[in-house]
Amino acid sequence: DGSRVQFIDTTAWGSLNSIAIHGGIAAMAFENTTDRRLPGQVVLFDTATRAPLAGVHAITVGALPDMLTFTPDGSRLLVANEGTPNAVADSPYTPANDPVGSVSIVSM
Question: What is the C-alpha separation between 31 and 41, in angstroms, rounded?
Answer without folding.
Answer: 7
